[in-house]
Specification:
By secondary structure, the protein is mainly alpha-helical. Helix 3 runs antiparallel to helix 8. The N and C termini lie far apart (92 Å). The longest helix is centred in the middle third of the chain and has 58 residues. The relative contact order is 0.07. The chain has a three-stranded antiparallel sheet. It folds into two domains: 47 residues, Ubiquitin-like (UB roll); 243 residues, Type II secretion system (T2SS), domain F (Receptor-associated Protein, Up-down Bundle). It is extended.
């Protein structure tokens, strides 16, 4: 049995998209026409061109694709376009084939009678648990357009923060890469050619010059051994940091870094408070809302902490008490949550916490390049000074020897 993707119209003119399984394309046509629909297009959903595996490497569906989908989806729903028609319009407009396939599957599931939240849940590789939970609660309260619009705004904020961080690090990264390239060129090409001159002249090399000259000789002689060790080591480290334990270690390193630590902690706290506030407003029980929020923050450390908090809340403990004394949740968060629990306005107080940390993150990202660039330039300057001193001091000693 093969799977075929089709577009067709009913006798009333309604557009339909979906999948049909048959032994051949002709059999698929017979199945569809027997249902009284007019086929517009029919293609093998499992058939792939020879280059599709190569091009698929460069085609990914990321946070930006999800944000664009959400924004367009919210706009169509706010314009009172029916759900099925909105998805079919998005299918036509989308250029990313992976997102297009996701929309196609969601539309097909809705046509078969599934609610939107269930259809999105079947595409869990694209929609997060937080996203699905928001849609599920919106279906109950009847505020689907509002929920999708909020999700689009939420995703835009995450993309904006990520973009600011990346932009702040681009210049230092280029500076470091350029410096490393110059160092490798000097120690492997220039220094090995001038070292014999110093040795034949009997010039005594300073200790730092010996280290750099020896490093150049080692790289020229054993470059293949360095690659044999370095490449597997990089692969092992990448695979380790992809695992749960490695991600926890990486999170710990980031959160303990002087500048980036404050930035990421503020970003995680803003996500935590905003997500939890929205879920509580949507009528989701607080313990379940905490569990869902733990997967939307983007930190394995905070995820594990919130798992424990969720279990304690299920056991009858207050959220403020569960957060008290935790190094990753400042006293401000616990105090605001405590006030919200006392006054019955927990969602409102969490929103205020989110606004506070959002402003803090924006302030840090605004100053990030001003903080990082001078530090990187200072370190690069020190290393360049040592590198050139290791070359110029022996040359100076050589000239002094000729004068004598």
């Amino acid at each position: 049995m093969a799977k075929f993707k089709y577009q067709a119209r009913t006798k009333e003119g309604e557009l339909q998209v979906g999948n049909v399984e048959a032994f051949s394309k002709e059999a698929a046509v017979n199945i569809l026409t027997s249902h009284g629909i007019f086929i517009l297009s029919l293609e093998n959903a499992e058939e792939k061109l020879w280059y599709s595996k190569i091009t698929s490497v460069f085609k990914r569906a990321g946070l930006k694709d999800l944000m664009i989908f959400s924004r367009q989806f919210a706009t169509l729903l706010e314009s009172k376009v029916p759900l099925n028609d909105a998805l079919k319009n998005l299918y036509k407009q989308t250029r990313n084939p992976i997102v297009q396939e996701v929309i196609f599957e969601v539309a097909s599931d809705i046509d078969s009678g599934l609610p939107l939240s269930k259809a999105l849940e079947r595409q869990g590789h694209f929609f997060s648990e937080f996203y699905i939970s928001m849609i599920r609660s919106a279906e109950i309260t009847g505020r689907l357009e509002e929920a999708i619009n909020y999700l689009a705004n939420y995703l835009e904020k995450q993309i904006m923060w990520r973009g600011k961080i990346i932009n702040s690090l681009i210049y230092p990264a280029f500076l470091i890469v350029g410096f490393v390239a110059v160092v490798i060129l000097l120690v492997t090409v220039v220094l090995p050619n001038i070292r014999p001159v110093f040795e034949e002249s009997g010039v005594v090399l300073p200790w730092y010059s010996k280290i750099i000259f020896d490093l150049g000789t080692f790289l020229v002689t054993w470059w293949w051994a360095v690659l044999l060790v370095l490449i597997p080591l990089i692969v092992i480290l990448v695979e380790y940091f992809r695992g749960d334990e490695g991600r926890i270690v990486l999170d710990e390193i980031i959160l303990r870094t002087p500048i980036l630590g404050g930035l990421f902690k503020g970003m995680y706290l803003a996500r935590f408070s905003e997500s939890l506030s929205i879920l509580i407003k949507g009528g989701i029980p607080i313990a379940q809302a905490i569990e869902i929020t733990s997967h939307s923050i983007g930190s394995y450390i905070y995820r594990d902490i919130l798992h424990g908090v969720s279990e304690r809340v299920r056991g009858g403990e207050l959220l403020s008490g569960s957060l008290a004394g935790n190094a990753y949740f400042p006293d401000l968060v616990g105090q605001m949550v405590g006030i919200g629990e006392t006054t019955g306005r927990l969602d409102e107080l969490l929103t205020r916490v989110s606004v506070y940390y959002t402003r803090e993150v924006e302030d840090i990202t605004g100053r990030l390049s001003e903080l990082i660039q001078p530090i990187v330039i200072a370190f690069v300057g020190i290393f360049i000074g040592v590198l050139f001193a290791s070359i110029l001091v022996p040359i100076y000693n050589l000239i002094q020897g000729f004068k004598i």
